[in-house]
């Protein structure tokens, strides 16, 4: 975690506004978490157990799906969803260039080759037509990333893809979101992350896979437990990716407040939209948009600053004690880790333009109107 992230996670004061206020989030659930930790410590069921089972049931119900399988982290969740969907070494997986590296990393860990496509210029979600055009004989899955709190066109992709190609949704940033009434994973499979800064965040790494398909859920659970349903009997080459009970306690406590928190994020996003209206009319910023049909949960409030030195703007905000970050500054094809894919500069112009211009403003359920006003004043000064 870099200095900017550490500063962004401190509780807000009169002088500053964090990017994400984890201290405020903890204060709301501290008593429930302590009581839950006591239950786990007294019962000594540290891996799995009743707390994990209850969380899986509760989060599946919240998500509108039949099955939730808790796993160790969001990256594992994507890999497990891909492997359960039939992705094997040598296959290709289509995914957007503008995503956190874990999406591509999960495909690579499953032995597949990531095939990258561009994003839409306004929502930054995967371009469905480009994804369809990228499908070839070796394609086994397409991974629409539900970015910043809203859903990509997963249902459209599923309806138009060949039957042999599965849609595996990366829903790490869309807990509680939906598109045209459809939650992530409906009719297929989705992976999510409970990294501490997410809308539903644990106190460490955690994740889950969601699906209505009992066979897919069973396959994920098998692979996440060393390929075993019973001790020392291993049916497949899996690995160890299990949700621990202490994290399940935290997630259960926070889940009770998730819908309310998402509503507060929507209110805060609407307030930013109004506060930024003058800058937007002047062409100094481009405000985020919600794609048609989306119920947005605003994991991040991401705007563009065309014509400005974005890194300098972020630096000025941070120097003023205001949380600001970039999600994400380097598209997948420009990272050394995936240089071997062979994409050159200009391969994905929308993703590359976004990477150079976007920045994320502080946004969390407890943010106050005066804090947002402070952020926008500082942004206006930073833009000059």
Task: Please characterize this protein's 3D structure.
The structure is a single chain. The chain has helices spanning 3-8, 22-43, 50-63, 74-84, 101-109, 128-133, 154-160, 214-223, 245-255, 258-275, 277-281, 310-319, 349-357, 369-383, and strands spanning 67-71, 92-96, 113-117, 139-142, 166-170, 178-179, 189-193, 207-211, 228-230, 233-234, 294-295, 301-304, 358-361. The chain is α/β, with parallel strands linked by helices. The strands form 4 sheets. Strands 1-8-7-5-4-2-3 form a 7-stranded mixed β-sheet, with helices on both faces. Strands 6-11 form a two-stranded antiparallel ribbon. Strands 9-10 form a two-stranded antiparallel sheet. Helix 3 (50-63) runs parallel beside helix 9 (245-255), helix 4 (74-84) crosses helix 8 (214-223) and helix 12 packs across helix 14 (369-383). 50% of the residues are buried. The model is unreliable at 1-14 (pLDDT under 50).
Q: How would you describe this structure in keywords?
A:
single chain, 40% helix, globular, disordered N terminus, Aspartate Aminotransferase, domain 2, alpha/beta, 384 residues, 7-stranded mixed beta sheet, 13 strands, Aspartate Aminotransferase, domain 1
